[in-house]
Amino acid sequence: MANIIQFTGLSGAGKTTLANQVKEELSLDGYRVTVIDGDVYRRGLCKDLGFSRADRIENIRRLGTVAGEMSDYYDVIIISAINPYQEARDLLKQQYQALLVHIDCDIITLRLRDTKGLYKRAFLPNEHEDKIYNLTGVNDVFDYPEFPDFRLDTNNIDIALSVQLLKKYILSAVL
Fold it and tell me: Per-residue pLDDT tens for 6-50?
């Protein structure tokens, strides 16, 4: 049975927060869980990659390789990354039987949260020097997952309930 779960969703949807809290909850129950955070790996193993389609797919391929190498040592491995292309998600599913969890959140809510200030910059006028031109889901591609194994809408569900729903899903699907 697959023990790799890929969390996909736009920046600010809650992927890393939820992954870390689910890890904590499951660890308290005695499960061995780790989180492979796309932002963390972008500063190390994947620091040579940009944000082109090819580089984003390579980033996910590398994260999948790390997860695959760890799979014998953990009960659950959560890859938390935007992962905007269905092609890359399918690659993880084919190679590692990775389950797909879509952490969904609408742009309006993401703009209100905007923890990194990315949405503010993406919506600046085109001629503004601080404008971001490649924010996934705004002015760069995000292939909306049509058939995820589990979808969690974080627009109106608080973190505590989201963690419990994810934990229940993981316990039923993986453990």
Answer: 999 999 999 999 999 999 999 999 999 999 999 899 899 889 998
Class of domain 4-173: alpha beta
Confidence (pTM):
0.93
Domain regions of the chain by residue span: 4-173
Three-class SS state of 145: coil
Contact 10, 83 (CB under 8 A): no
Query: What pLDDT band is residue 82 in, cutting at 50, 70 and 90?
Result: very high
- Distance (Å, whole) CA 60 – CA 88: 6
pLDDT at res. 1: 47
**Could you tell me which of 5, 17, 37, 14 has the C-alpha nearest to residue 105?**
14
Provide the token pair at 144.
């909306």
Instruction: Give SS3 for 6.
Output: strand
| pLDDT exceeds cutoff 70 at 94 | yes
Q: The sheet that has 33-37: what strands, in order across it?
A: 33-37, 76-80, 4-8, 99-104, 150-153
Contact 74, 33 (CB under 8 A): yes
How far is residue 99's CA from residue 7's CA, in Å, rounded to a whole number? Answer: 9
